[in-house]
């Protein structure tokens, strides 16, 4: 698995990340509204979108162009910087060999163009793409190497409205060297496989009504819960068929919040659709999701996402505490910690009650605060364990310090 190890931005909205943000397996973001938490997560979502082929190619719009539009178009430029200007993103990955992807977007008036792209492996450029100053020609140098030939640069012509990363296979077709023998092809495949598995969730986007009343059609494809959650029953069915102990893990997870739970299972009431039954001890008939509370349905969503035998290569959840009883947040925190031992997890939260349960993981907390000397910008810094050690020794929990706005934790709006 390729893990994102560092993220750097420059001139992007209100974030001051010029020095980069180093990420871990578990990352917990705290900070006031408007401090850039969602902006940072959108930088990650942008990379996934930009490397996802468009669903409808007849529109003539590339995945990169769609991704720029979703990110904000020309509004991505720091409001304190005058256009024309460039916005830089750098993504660093840990893999069998280190890998870095650098993207430069040029903002001119109402237009955003890709002006630079570089992919490196162990500091050596295997794709180095740039646009000439006259903005008419895009050029790429791709270094190829095989066991039979020396490393030589070859010049290739790329379409300027899409990432070079997405065009490499077509450009290498018909060459003298099989694509599988070219380092950039292998690294590209590894990177795109990782990015395709990234999953983003926001508790505000969960459509509880659709989850309760949807009866999705049977199909083998759904292994990840959708953003809205409406394929929940189908994912539960598919993962249960795939993993013998998954249903038992979900049952145990639900007993942690509702102790009389006997079984939660996906059933096929007809020939083609699937729904979810919830069985309780000493109750002869099952309950269905449209009979369960909002918080219970939300917890089932998080349980299936976090206990899945097919965890994504990056799991991002914004404000998972929304709609949940405070007593259940301790349980949710343990699920998050367990998932982070198997994959990379990023959580953003405003909940001191959830934060309480991460007192033992202070080193995983990142605080968004106003950048020193630049009140319009926000910096992101890891919470140093030594700053709160004396408080924790006295019996304080991390959420306690956050509740009272203690400056040793920070992330408070005033």
Structure description:
The radius of gyration is 24 Å and the shape is globular. It has 2 domains: 1-198 and 313-414, Rossmann fold, CATH 3.40.50; 206-311, no CATH class. It has 414 residues and is an alpha+beta fold. It contains 12 helices and 17 strands. Helix 1 packs antiparallel against helix 2 and helix 8 packs parallel to helix 9. Strands 2-1-4-5-6-7-8-9 form an 8-stranded antiparallel beta sheet, with helices on one face. Strands 10-14-15-3-16-17 form a 6-stranded mixed beta sheet, with helices on both faces. A 3-stranded antiparallel beta sheet has the order 11-12-13. It has helices spanning 37-50, 63-71, 164-172, 183-196, 208-213, 232-242, 246-255, 294-306, 329-340, 352-356, 385-393, 398-403, and strands at 3-10, 21-22, 26-30, 85-94, 99-108, 111-121, 124-131, 138-144, 152-157, 199-202, 261-267, 275-280, 287-288, 314-318, 344-348, 365-371, 374-382. Strand 8 (138-144) and strand 9 form a beta hairpin. The longest helix has 14 residues, at 37-50.
Give a summary of the structure in a few sentences:
By secondary structure, this protein is α+β, with helices and mostly antiparallel strands.
Task: Label this structure with key terms.
8-stranded antiparallel β-sheet, 29% helix, 12 helices, alpha+beta, single chain, 2 domains, Rossmann fold, 6-stranded mixed β-sheet, 414 residues
């Amino acid at each position: 698995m390729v893990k994102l190890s560092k993220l750097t931005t420059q001139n992007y909205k209100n974030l001051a990340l010029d020095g980069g943000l180093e990420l871990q397996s578990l990352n917990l973001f705290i900070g006031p509204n408007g401090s850039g938490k969602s902006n940072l997560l959108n930088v990650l979502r942008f990379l996934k979108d930009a490397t996802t082929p468009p669903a409808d190619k007849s529109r003539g719009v590339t995945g990169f162009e769609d991704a720029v539009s979703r990110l904000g178009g020309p509004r991505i430029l720091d409001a304190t910087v005058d256009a024309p200007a460039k916005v830089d993103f750098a993504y660093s990955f840990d893999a069998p060999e280190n890998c870095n992807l650098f993207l430069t977007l040029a903002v001119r008036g109402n237009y955003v163009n890709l002006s630079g792209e570089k992919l490196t492996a162990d500091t050596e450029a295997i794709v180095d793409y740039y646009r000439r100053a006259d903005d008419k020609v895009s050029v790429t140098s791709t270094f190829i190497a095989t066991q039979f030939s020396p490393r030589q640069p070859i010049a290739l012509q790329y379409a300027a409205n899409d990432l070079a990363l997405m065009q490499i296979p077509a450009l290498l077709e018909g060459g003298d060297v099989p694509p599988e023998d070219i380092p950039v092809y292998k690294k590209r495949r590894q990177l795109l496989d990782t990015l395709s598995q990234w999953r983003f969730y926001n508790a505000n986007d969960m459509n509880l009504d659709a989850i309760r009343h949807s009866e999705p059609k049977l199909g083998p494809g759904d292994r990840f819960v959708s953003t809205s959650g409406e394929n929940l029953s189908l994912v539960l069915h598919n993962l249960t068929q795939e993993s013998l102990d998954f249903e038992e893990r979900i049952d145990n997870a639900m007993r942690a919040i509702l102790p009389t739970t006997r079984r939660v299972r996906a059933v096929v009431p007809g020939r083609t659709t699937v729904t979810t039954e919830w069985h309780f001890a000493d109750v002869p008939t099952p309950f269905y999701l449209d009979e369960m509370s909002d918080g219970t349905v939300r917890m089932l969503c998080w349980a299936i996402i976090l206990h899945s035998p097919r965890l994504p290569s990056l799991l991002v959840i914004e404000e998972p505490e929304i709609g949940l009883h405070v007593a259940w947040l301790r349980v949710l925190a343990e699920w998050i910690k367990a998932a982070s031992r198997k994959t990379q997890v990023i959580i953003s939260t405003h909940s001191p009650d959830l934060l309480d349960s991460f007192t033992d993981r202070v080193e995983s907390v990142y605080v968004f605060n106003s950048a020193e000397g630049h009140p319009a910008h926000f910096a992101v810094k890891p919470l140093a364990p030594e700053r709160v050690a004396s408080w924790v020794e006295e019996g304080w929990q991390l959420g306690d310090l956050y509740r009272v706005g203690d400056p040793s934790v920070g992330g408070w709006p005033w």
